[in-house]
Amino acid sequence: MAVPEPTGWRRIICAVVLAMVFTLHTASLPVAAQDTTGSTNVVDAIKPALEKAAREGATVIVVGNSTDAAKAGQNANDPGISDILNRALFRFKLTLGNAEQALGNMKSTLAKASPDDKINWLFYAFVAGLAGVVLGRLAAKPVANWVRDVFAPRVPEVPTSRQQKIGYLLFRGTTFGLFALFVAAVGSIIVIIYAGDHMPSRATGLAVVWTYMAYRLMRSIYINILVPSVPNYRMINMDDAEAERLYQTLLIATAISLSIIGVCVWMDHLGLDVSTHKLMLMFGSLISALLFCGIAVVHRSAVAQAIAGFGSLDEKPFWLRALARSWHVILITYVLGAWAVSAVRLLLDQPASSGLVGAPLAVLIAALVVYGITLVLIDKLFAGHSRMQQLAAAAAEAEQEGVTAGTSGEQVEATDGDTGSGSVFKGLIEHASALGIAFLGLAAIAQIWGINFGDPSNWVARSLDVIVVLFGAYIAYRAVELWIDSKVEEEDPHAGEEAEVGGEPGGAGATRLATLLPIFRNFLLITIVTIAGMIALSEMGVNIAPLFAGAGVVGLAIGFGAQTLIRDIFSGAFFLVDDAFRKGEYIDIGSAKGTVEKISIRSMQLRHHNGPLNTIPFGEIKQLTNFSRDWVMMKLPLRLTYDTDIERVRKLVKKLGIELLDHPEIGDKFMQPLKSQGVKQMDDSAMIVRVKFMTKPGDQFDVRKVVYHRIQELFEANGIHFAHREVTVRIADDDKKSDTVKEKAAVGAVQTVIEKPA
Given this model, what pLDDT does residue 20 score? Predict the structure, then answer.
């Protein structure tokens, strides 16, 4: 009897499955050796017998001669698209043809499992399973109440740290999980005692108990991720009402899915025929897939908000915005595609045919648990570091105030050994942990799909190797960048700040280490990127030996053709070794002057105090004058009238210099106090008296403002007058010239004297 052509709803299902098979045929593994449909001629010859045997629940194994077996094996090792489609279609027709007898096959299986040819045992076994669950819950309730009474008062209503949040959620999740396992253990013991030696009754009761345990475990995971009852401990950005709705929806979908899986596993243990079992698995997993796809559509906005995290979505990176807005499309595509591939592999008896649909959910839950534990460990690791920094800051503040710090010798010793560089890497370690766990999750999903990582010809395995290399390079890149930037900031706390526009030139520059470290950082980063690129190309199968040879040729060409570049590089290296200038210092090279703003391998940039930026190759520097080293002597000219007592001025300036040493703002900036140098010059209308003081480079401008202000107040209080510039113009007696001409001549003479530089 021929297999009836699919009609009605069966035709629609057949069309859907074939479309998915055609789309995802490349994901299917090679057909197993036991597949006997490799020869089309053989199949056509025995097709009626196979159809009849399949409807009757029998399994037929066709054994051919060696030639046919060799051809079938050769065909199985290299299946084409049409071969996969034909095999899947034939198996699907056979399986779908048994759909009408599925219920009868299940009843027959249950009847065979009965010890007395009656089906009453099923009811009693099911009740035994429920009784085991109830008694297990009753046995675990006193322990659960004790745990709640002991630990609940210790949990603050509002957590103060991330570590406190994650610790509470992990503890609660572990407690719920142990509770579910305890209930399952007690229920299993009760079922085993009740069932005795009747294995079908034992399998039925255990199926009820372990399905309930799986449901409780999933519930504990959902309740600790969404946290609908304790919103203060929720780690994701989700509204309270939406979290509660999503939690309840997931519980319903999970209960239905686990029930379907439990029934399939249970019937398989009872000896259900293979064809009916495949049918149950296919359509049971389809129902679960559609349920979770529906949840994704209904709650897409809430989950998108959780993915984006706290803050405005528009301020997030592009990849995160794209993921938040399209996650449900990605999930639905994966779930339906995974179901199609699972169905094909199940029909063709291929490995890795189960678990594909739920793999992302299982991996995500495991990744969240591992990441939570990792964050707690990181917080504990750096909590001691932060504590030592606080003790060191408190001790320094107490020392400045003249108060003896109340720290023990052990604490002081710990703070002395604290360099303060560890906390720089906390964010990097968290980021690296997240990326590493995500990578392991992808590898786990690939393993579930049956990808062999030991096969060098597998492009997925090679891609994961490349990802590992790039991940290691990224971590090394960020570690070097963070460490050197932190050292630069320690050497120059004002590094990265925008310089004052139009400020006074000649200020103090950065330290020598702060000048050299950025160049060293660039060299290391280029080295890391180059090595990572070479290793990645090698993992992709590219022969990198010619690249090294080409690099040697390029280096030789540069050596001959870029002599100016080589001169600039070597000149800059020697300038830096000699410590001739540093970043932030004011220098003059003859052709240009300004503050050193940027240093590269072959040149530097000088920012003139008026704004222009000059780029100077190192090879062009013949002489260099540094105005920002060691100390600065500031000399201030004062124009005084001729009747001024110079000795009195000297004494007043000397006294003022002593007073300024105790000034709260500039007192500690003096390297030499303010003093008078006497009369420097005798002008037509004034005596030029000069005072001087010494400071560190950059401090002279702040000190100069205070010195001018105090001298003006001091001279005014002591009757010492500043001389005004006077110009005497003699006009010859000439009656022939008008008064207007004489006035213009006088103005011109005065203007010439005034504009003449002092």
Answer: 41
SS3 632: strand
Name the token pair of 726.
Answer: 């006077």
Q: Which two tokens stand for residue 517?
A: 């470290």
Environment class of residue 480 by beta-carbon count within 10 Å: exposed (0-12), middle (13-18) or buried (19+)?
Answer: middle
Look at the pTM and tell me if it is higher than 0.85: no
Quick one: 734 exposed, middle or buried, by C-beta within 10 A (0-12, 13-18, 19+)?
A: exposed
- Region of 57 (left: φ > 0; alpha: ψ -120 to 50; beta: rest) is left
Length, in residues, of the chain: 758
Radius of gyration of the chain (CA): 43
Phi and psi at 480, nearest 5°, equal: -65, -45
Residue 403 binned pLDDT confidence (cut-offs 50, 70, 90): very low
How far apart CA 347 and CA 341 sit, in angstroms, is 10
Return the minimum-mean-pLDDT range out of 233-237, 408-412, 645-649, 747-751.
408-412
Place of tokens 């570690």: 479
In the structure, what pLDDT confidence band is assigned to residue 297 with cuts at 50, 70 and 90?
very high
| 212, 183 Cβ separation under 8 angstroms | yes
Yes or no: say if 357 and 288 are a contact pair by the CB < 8 Å rule.
yes
- CA 253/CA 260 separation, integer angstroms: 11
Burial class (CB in 10 A: 0-12, 13-18, 19+), 390: exposed
Q: Which residue has the tokens 């007690």?
A: 186
- Mean pLDDT over 365-377 rounds to 87
Per-residue pLDDT reduced to its tens digit, 556-609 = 666 665 667 777 777 777 777 777 777 778 888 888 888 888 887 778 888 887
Which residue is associated with the tokens 């460990």?
A: 377
Per DSSP, the residues of 559-592 read HHH-HHHHHHHHHHHHHHHTT---TT-EEE-SS-
Choose among 342, 295, 447, 450: nearest CA to 20. Answer: 342
Sign of CA dihedral 382, 384, 386, 389: negative
Cα→Cα distances 431→403, 427, 438, 471, 478, Å: 41, 6, 11, 11, 10
Q: What is the dihedral of CA 568, 571, 576, 578, to 10 degrees?
A: -170
Which distant-in-sequence residues (6+ apart) come within 8 Å of 150 by Cβ? none
CA dist 553 and 493 (Å) reads 44
Structure tokens at 596: 């050193």
Task: Please give the single-letter amino acid code of residue 491.
Answer: E
- The mean per-residue pLDDT over the stretch 202-218 comes to 92
Q: Order of strands, edge to edge, in the sheet holding 586-588? A: 613-617, 603-607, 593-599, 586-588, 625-626
pLDDT interval class at 22 (50, 70, 90): very low
Where residue 676 falls (left for φ over 0; alpha for ψ -120 to 50; beta otherwise) is beta
For 740, phi and psi rounded to 5 degrees?
A: -65, -40
For residues 389 and 652, the model is more confident at 652
Q: Could you tell me if 243 and 185 are in contact, meaning their C-beta atoms sit under 8 angstroms apart? A: no
How far apart are alpha carbons 413 and 591 in whole angstroms? Answer: 53
Q: How far is 537 from 705, CA to CA, in rounded Å?
A: 63
The first and second tokens of residue 141, run together, are: 């309730």
Identify the H or E element spanning 548.
Answer: helix 545-561
Report how far residue 262's alpha carbon sits from residue 376's, in angstroms, rounded to the nearest whole number: 36
Which element (helix H / strand E) includes 650? helix 646-660
Q: Tell me: the pLDDT tens digits for 694-733?
A: 888 877 788 888 888 888 888 888 888 888 776 666 666 6
Cα 259 from chain centre: 38
Give the whole-angstrom CA distance, residue 659 versus residue 710: 10
Location of structure tokens 């002593």: 658
Instruction: Answer for the pair 24, 337: CB distance below 8 angstroms, yes or no.
Output: yes
d(Cα 556, Cα 385) in Å, to the nearest integer?
50
* Cβ–Cβ < 8 Å for 377, 397: no
